[in-house]
What does this fold into?
Amino acid sequence: MTKRVDPFESPKRRLARAKQHICRFEKRIQTFIKKKPYDRTEDTQADGTTIHALKFTRDFPDSWTDAAVESLEALRSALDQTGYAAAVLGGTPEPKNAYFPMGDTIADLDSVTGGRCKDLPAEVRTLFRGFDAHEGGNYALWALNKLCNANKHRLLIPVGVGGGEMTMNRGIISGGDLYAPRWNGAKNQLEFATIRPGGNLKYDAKITFHIAFDEFNKVKGGPAVGILNTIADEVQRVLLATKAECQRIGLLK
It folds into this structure.
């Protein structure tokens, strides 16, 4: 018996590969954090104030960024291969314009849909447009587009500490301010307090932090792993909906 070939097998493999990269990315971050690669530090400024921080003693591994980039590339590829498969099912043997439409604005999205989706069956083109992949619409798919289009050299830098939480088990502070930890990339440290001359800070603290995409990419909203998983969920939703639509209109049984 001849095995039936799934026209969407290739994008499914790309999606599965992306999820593997995301899982690897998350495990590498967790391994790094468990080793507590930071020391407490106090930086005295020119005006006499002292900034209290946790300074990282190791650089963030390039492998983190490699895994993030590879997952993004696989996710983008899964979307475009989904469009390609739908166009072939629709009767275009070698489609050139079966792009999954994305844009910064609704106008951009409509322009792309009208130009780079011409080889898609009309129903699939309407389906793709309905995912509303622009900044004010489907944030996850828009984020995928922005990250994939970012300068790849810059993309190797932005995976850094995006924020954190601090629990003061025992602490005494006078003449200063304690604030939510903030990342100082120039000094490779997470800063959480500024003490004025004559002030004092004693503490026993536990800090947790997450790894986020740099603001350069215009992608915010929390940990990079969380954003990648959300994007992967949306790509899977597109893939499954496209296959279902092809079945509904009789292109696939």
